[in-house]
Amino acid sequence: MTSSSKTKTATLSTTYRVKGWVQRQIKRDWVKLSLAGLWLSFVAAHVATDSVPTQLLERRLQTLFFEIRGPVITPNDIVILAMDDESFGQAEYYRTDPDQYSHLAPIAGIPWQRQAHAIAVERLLDAGAKAVVLDILMFADSSYGPADDQALAEVLNRYGDRVVLATRVDDAQLRQGALIRPTQPLPELLNTPVHTGNINFFIEPNGRIHRHGRAYLNGLESSLAEIDAVSSLESDVDNTRSFAEASLDAAGVDYPPYQGDFINFYGPTRSFSHMPFWYVLDPDPWSEYLNNGRYFKDKIVLVGATSKLLQDFHQAPFSETLLHPEAMAGVEILATDIANLRSGNSLRLGFPSPWLRGLLVLVGGTGFVLLLRRFNRPIARLGWTAAANGGWFWLSYSAFAGAGLLLPTGAPITGLMVLGSTYIVADIVTEQLRKQRLRQTLEQYVTSPIVQEIISQQDDLQDLLKLREAEVIGLLLANRYRIVRLLGSGGFGETYVAEDTQRPGSPICVVKQLRIISNDPRAHRLGRRFFQGEAESLESLGHHSQIPRLLAYFEAQNSFYLVEEMIEGRLLKDELASRRPMPQTYVLDLLLGLLPVIAFVHDQGVIHRDIKPSNIIRRQLDGQLVLIDFGAVKLISNKLADTGVNLTSTSTVGVGTQGYMSSEQSAGLPKFGSDLYALGITAIEALTGIPAYALRRDVNGELIWRHEAASHLNPEFGDIVSRLVLYDFTDRYQRAEEVLADLTRIEAVVRSQPQPEGTSTPSSDADLGAPHYGVRIDSVATDNMDDPEATDDPTRMLPGDWFATAGEASSSDEDASSAEVNS
């Protein structure tokens, strides 16, 4: 061994050891369990401490839950008197004719006069409203002078016990500490029986409002003990009420004790009833639309901004989302807060204790890990991960929608996803390392028959066949056939394209190898005997012009070889795919063209066993249908298995294709009628355009197909086709000659029957609009591994320019692959 070879071997050995060590470590449970424990502890800690990332996940899912649930009906006794764009637009009328529209003078400028609110309060309460809630900041003197403030103060003196003004808590971080100060309305307004309520809300990590105004005040009170206040509060925060609490107190409405922190939103913007503010000032809409104010009787009226001009909009559930892109006005959030507080249907935490939520994550995650350990397949673990996440998501949604409970959802689902992904990734890495090691091993032994069989069954190893192809190209078999391409490998051999070097011009032919993989000497003796018998049968079949000829057969190096002629043409499979369904005259010609061939085969005592569109080719030379692929090699392998010979490959391989096999053939007892059954299925496929595997059957096993065929189908012709495919073989045609006799009897009637407009019977490739090209068609199969019904394998395609006629297009990859039937 050379020095370079030793170095290469040592390097390869080291690589194997390292990859093996990595694979063993990944497989060990303690590694996965340690990672799972660390991750569960991390997630549980975040849930228990209600960290910012946890809040972000939970609020986003709450928003999603609202979107899934959709809007619900709002209370009809809470009304918004909207300072909307329509009301601001009334200023144009006032400027046009101040005398006629003098009642609009208080809202003719920006900002509006406080007298406008004084008029609204007086009219609404006189009309019977329970309370008027002003979502308007009045912290500074009116720009219209003291008289404007005095006008509002006079009204509040008379009606203030049913009016609410807005307050706000301002906080600032100074170098000396935090400054928290409630900002109150003007003193002259406060010196009335008016109620005040705080309008602050928490802004969650996702930028939305989710919690009640009371929750903001509670959080403020709890944080006062933890901060260094620079100055004393101008008003006692402990006694400050939320805007919703003040509104219900002003309306004289009792409400249940405060329970849940989270607002149960009813729907998107304008879920509550909106009425333009100017309706209250203008006599016409006041009397006509509002029935002199009776519309507001026994209602809580919120006055607030909804105009885009005032920009009082906020993010909340049902706003600025995919389904509800519009933002929500602040007054609508306040209305929702009031309605929730009064009804007591706020959203509340299912597990109020944060540590209890953390324990829930730990217990649930541990159970999930134990579940994953019971399964060692990535697909199963992926399924359980999806099921666990989906189950917890919908359980949380059901608790949200049905009981108003908020369960920990975002963080647990993230935790389960990571846990599942950890196991799945570990499985995938292990599998990839295993495949890589297998691949490197197979590269060293790619010429072994057993390795060839393994490669033929693994799509991701197909490129290794190129190594084998490089080895066999140029080999000379029997001192005559030079291999120019490896078409494919199967469980019992390989198929090659070869040149016949002992014929003028070295024409192309197909060589198929049968390899007996066994250590039993009897296998080779029996294989030789069976091979010779089958080759003689194929030789006799090749005397028919519509069956490919067997050119030669020979034995070399304990393998057996068949040499077959090349057929140029188009597969019936591709012909049917180009136009479906086909006219009945086409199907008639199909049957009349193949039945004599089948009759000839049966006369030789042979059953084809695998008649289907991909084993029928329309020869380019004369348009005749050629029957191919008699599955001889599989028959030999089955005969060897039946004798009890120990084969290291698959012991018995069925011959035939599902969908085209009759019941008796599927049971291993094919008869002559089995071939006629397969031909009938092919005819039905052409008549209906439905693939064989998709045809339906009744309770007795009979095919249901006539309703899928064209309405012009001749009844007698349909009866003949139906008899070909009867479930019980004793009721079917027994001989091809019987079918030919019945078809000949009705042929003239079928051909004379007019075809539907726009259809024609294709008689050649030109009629089908198909390119003329040549393809190689096998007359026997190594096995069905390369069946084009199952796969299109580019590594087994013939170059179209090998067999294309001069000046014509070569076949496409798909056609070329399809042409290599059962190679």
Structural class: alpha/beta
Q: What is the architecture of one domain at the second tier of CATH?
A: Orthogonal Bundle
Give the C-level CATH assignment of one domain: Mainly Alpha
Largest sheet: 7 strands, mixed
Overview of this protein structure:
- By secondary structure, the protein is α/β, with parallel strands linked by helices.
- Among the domains are: 206 residues, no CATH class; 112 residues, 2-Layer Sandwich (Phosphorylase Kinase, domain 1); 251 residues, Orthogonal Bundle (Transferase(Phosphotransferase), domain 1).
- Helices cover 44% and strands 13% of the residues.
- Strands 1, 2, 3, 4, 5, 6 and 7 form a seven-stranded mixed β-sheet that branches. The protein has a six-stranded antiparallel β-sheet with strand order 12-13-14-15-17-16.
- The longest helix has 35 residues.
- The C terminus is likely disordered.
